[in-house]
């Protein structure tokens, strides 16, 4: 099995190292084809930033291939590498949370994907912006190869979230971002189960800047984030940060009541002063159908929000760690 041999100067871990420590959190689900190349490029970039102490935390999100075995091999060859293996696939948002909570005494954390669509070379710019005083350094794609349906859905999602929620989120934002330790410590206190990770970060505020980049194609393999996964994340994110669907339901209800009263008034007037054009039964059937539609829509939306409440109340663990590698016994 091919292993990446780190430079000899990174194999020595000095417990009294006073350099700023930056941890890279890398969620990985069936990324065995990309891990070697990712670590090679990330290692090259971090070695060029030798004034910092680096740590790699890989989170195996229940992969069905040999992703975890590769992480174990990397950890065995380089003491900077740590691995967390979850008991099943919990999803990217939870993987990022698991990686966040696995960090210790880091001055900053960078979240980055293992498929190389988040260029490791951009780490240099993220760190530079952090040193300028920004506590959150986010990234935004300038261009990426999307299908027409996915592109239209992405634009609609960000438009709705930006204009009808408390979030000031930018279109084509990514999870590839650097967080200062002050932001990290507060983010670790968040307890909600239904998570939109970048939404939580943007909601927090702090001093923030954005670095743009062009996303390359995946190095190898296919994306494991399906259209259904994206749709589910969009719905969960919108209902987590916005009450607009419930407000729309209320407005629809008021509109139907107003129209019904107007039609009733019209029917009464035509009954006494003009010849009857439409029968009362016709009006009853049409508006009764509309009313039932509004009620059903309201029930569906209320059920969605109650579902979120249920998820929060039952208090299951966010994730289950099956195995760890590279950590000390007290970590």
How are the strands of the largest sheet arranged? 7-5-6-4-1-2-3-8
Mean pLDDT over the full residue set: 75
CATH superfamily of the largest domain: Spore Coat Polysaccharide Biosynthesis Protein SpsA, Chain A
Return the domain count. 2
| CATH fold-level topology of the largest domain | Spore Coat Polysaccharide Biosynthesis Protein SpsA, Chain A
Helicity level, as a percent range?
40-55%
* Structural class computed from helices and strand pairing: alpha/beta
Which residue ranges are poorly predicted, with pLDDT under 50 across at least 5 consecutive positions?
1-13
- Could you state the order of secondary-structure elements as H and E? EHEHEHEHEHEHHEHHHE
What proportion strand? 15-25%
Second rung of CATH, namely the architecture of the largest domain? Alpha-Beta Complex
Number of helices: 10
């Amino acid at each position: 099995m091919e292993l990446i041999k780190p430079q000899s100067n990174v194999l020595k871990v000095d417990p009294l190292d006073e350099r700023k420590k930056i941890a890279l959190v890398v969620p990985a689900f069936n990324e065995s084809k990309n891990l070697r190349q990712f670590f090679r490029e990330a290692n090259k970039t971090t070695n060029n930033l030798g004034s910092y102490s680096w740590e790699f935390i890989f989170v195996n999100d229940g992969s069905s291939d040999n992703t975890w075995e590769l992480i174990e091999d990397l950890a065995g060859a380089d003491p900077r590498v740590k691995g967390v293996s979850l008991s099943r696939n919990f999803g990217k948002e939870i993987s990022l949370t698991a990686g966040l909570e696995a960090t210790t005494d880091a001055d900053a954390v960078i979240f980055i994907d293992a498929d190389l669509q988040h260029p490791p070379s951009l780490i240099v710019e993220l760190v530079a912006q952090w040193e300028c005083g920004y506590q959150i350094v986010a990234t935004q794609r300038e261009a990426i190869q999307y299908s027409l349906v996915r592109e239209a859905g992405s634009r609609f999602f960000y438009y709705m979230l930006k204009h009808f929620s408390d979030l000031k989120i930018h279109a084509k934002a990514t999870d590839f971002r650097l967080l200062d330790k002050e932001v990290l410590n507060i983010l670790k206190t968040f307890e909600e189960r239904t998570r939109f990770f970048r939404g939580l970060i943007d909601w927090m505020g702090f001093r923030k800047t954005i670095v743009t980049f062009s996303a390359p194609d995946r190095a190898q393999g296919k994306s494991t984030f399906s259209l259904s996964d994206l749709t589910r994340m969009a719905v969960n994110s919108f209902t987590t940060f916005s009450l607009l669907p419930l407000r729309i339901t209320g407005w629809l209800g008021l509109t139907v009541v107003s129209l019904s009263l107007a039609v009733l008034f019209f029917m009464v007037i035509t009954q006494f002063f003009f010849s009857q054009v439409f029968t009362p039964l016709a009006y009853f059937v049409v508006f009764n159908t509309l009313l039932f539609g509004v009620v059903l829509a309201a029930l569906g939306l209320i059920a969605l929000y109650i579902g979120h409440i249920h998820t929060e109340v039952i208090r299951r663990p966010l994730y289950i760690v099956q195995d760890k590698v590279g950590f000390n016994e007290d970590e």
